[in-house]
Amino acid sequence: MPGRCGAHVAGGGIALDGTRWISSRPAFLLPVRVLGALFRRLFLIRLLALFDAGKLGFFGTMADLTTRKAFLRYLSPIRRKRWMVYAKPPFAGPQAVLA
């Protein structure tokens, strides 16, 4: 059964020309830039979903973000920034993460 007995996920991908496998560096599954871009995209998608569901509240100096247009304008510079991620093995091992 996958995931038991220390199974590993292969890190890397097929070359653009489709002729060979290119391995990632040992102990890395995804490049940090790719992971940062993916995390940024998913975070902002879910943040906007919370906004659309009416689950975010804005008060004080942020009260003007209650309209979707203002909220999107506020997020605009964040979408262009490079996000850095820091990932390390879980303290309790991969099984604890899956649990």
UniProtKB/TrEMBL annotation:
<protein>
    <submittedName>
        <fullName>Transposase</fullName>
    </submittedName>
</protein>
<dbReference type="GO" id="GO:0006313">
    <property type="term" value="P:DNA transposition"/>
</dbReference>
<dbReference type="InterPro" id="IPR007069">
    <property type="entry name" value="Transposase_32"/>
</dbReference>
<dbReference type="Pfam" id="PF04986">
    <property type="entry name" value="Y2_Tnp"/>
</dbReference>
<dbReference type="GO" id="GO:0004803">
    <property type="term" value="F:transposase activity"/>
</dbReference>
<dbReference type="GO" id="GO:0003677">
    <property type="term" value="F:DNA binding"/>
</dbReference>
<feature type="domain" description="Transposase IS801/IS1294">
    <location>
        <begin position="9"/>
        <end position="98"/>
    </location>
</feature>
